[in-house]
Design goal:
It contains 12 helices and 2 strands. It is mainly α. The chain folds into 3 domains: 104 residues, no CATH class; 123 residues, no CATH class; 117 residues, no CATH class. The chain has a two-stranded antiparallel sheet.
Length: 383
Amino acid sequence: MAEEVNNYSGKLSTFSIILIVIAFLFIVFSFFAPYIFTEFSWLILSDNSPLGDTLGGIMNPFIAIGAAILTFLAFYMQFKANKQQREQFTQQLKEDKRQFSEELEEQRKQFERTQFENQFYEMIRLHKENVNEMKIIQYSHPIPDKSNDHRVITGREVFDIYLKEFNIIYQIASFYKETSIGFNQFKSAYSIFYDGASLVPHILKDQTNINSIINLKEPNLNGDLYDVSKVYQESKYYRLSSWVNKLRLVKGLSIEDLRIDVFKGHSSQLSHYYRHLYQTVKFVCNQRRELLKYEDKRNYLRILRAQLSNEEQVLLFYNWHADYGNNWENSNHKFFTDYRMIHNIRESLLVSDIDIVQIFNDVHPNIRKEDGRENDPLFEFQD
C-alpha cells in the first residue's frame, strides 16, 4: 500500500499523460483549424464573413475540448490526491495501531515478568524461612550428678545430621537383606528415616503379594530399630553403636554417636520443606514460553538451586529415588534432568551402591540442553 502511495505522488500515470497530450494537440490544432477549414473544407464560408467570427467559430470548439480535457484531468488529479491522502491516513492509522499494540504487549510482558519475579523471590524468601525453622535437639553425653545438657541445631546443619542418620539406617539395613522376600535396602532405610521405625513392620511398596508378607521373618528392621531408638533414649543418648551391635543380625558396625532421637522419622519437617520447594520449581517451569524461554527458566532455577546445600540436594534425590517424591522426575516433569535441580550433588555424599548417572540415563537419556552450549552435563562432577 505504501508503495502505491509513493507511485501516485512521484509521477503522473500513463492515463494522465495521454489526456494531457490529447488536450495539447486539440489546442495546437485550433491554431491551424481556420486555415484548414477555409481552404480545404467542403464547408462554404462567405468571403465577407468577419474574421473574428471565423477564427472564433473554428478555434473555440477545439480549445473548449482541450480545456474540458484539462478540467477533467484536474478533477481526476484531485480525486487521485484525495485517494492518496486517505490511503496515507489509513496506512498511518494502521502503523500507529500496530505500534500501540506492540507497546501494549511489551508493557504487558514487562508487568507479567515483574509479577513473576516478585512472587519468585517471595517464594525463595519463604524457602529460606523453612530452612531456618528446621531444628533438631542434640544431647550431650551424660555427666554424673548433672542434668543432661543439650543444644538445638537449626538451619542447614540439620540436613547434615539427617544425612548421617540415613547413612546409619542404610548400613544397618544391609544386614537385613535376607529377612524378607523382595526386601529393598534403600527404600526400607528411607522409609524408616522419613516415617520413623514402628512396632508394626511397614509393608513395602514392592511387597505386594501374599507370599512376601507370609515369609516376613523375625527379626525385622522396623521392629529392631524401634527397640534401639527406645533404649538409646533411655540411656540418655549414649553409645548408639553399642546398642545397634546388640541386634541379632548386626555384626561389627561402627557408627557415629549422633546423640539425637534416632529412627523417629522427620516427615513433620521435611514434608513441608519438600512441598514448598516443589511448588517453587513448578511455578518457574510452568511459565509460558512467551514470558520465559527455557534458558531464562534455567537461570532462575540456578538462583533457587544456589540456596540448596549439598546435603539438601542429596536428600532431595533420595526422596525421589525412594518413591516419595515421584513428581520431581516422571513423564510429565523433568525437574532433575531438563532443569538440573540436583546439578551440584556430590558423588562422595551418596551411598556407595547408588550409580546416580546410570539411574538418570535409564530414566531420561536425552536430556535437554541450553541453546549454544555444547557441554551442558546433568551433574557438576561431569564437567
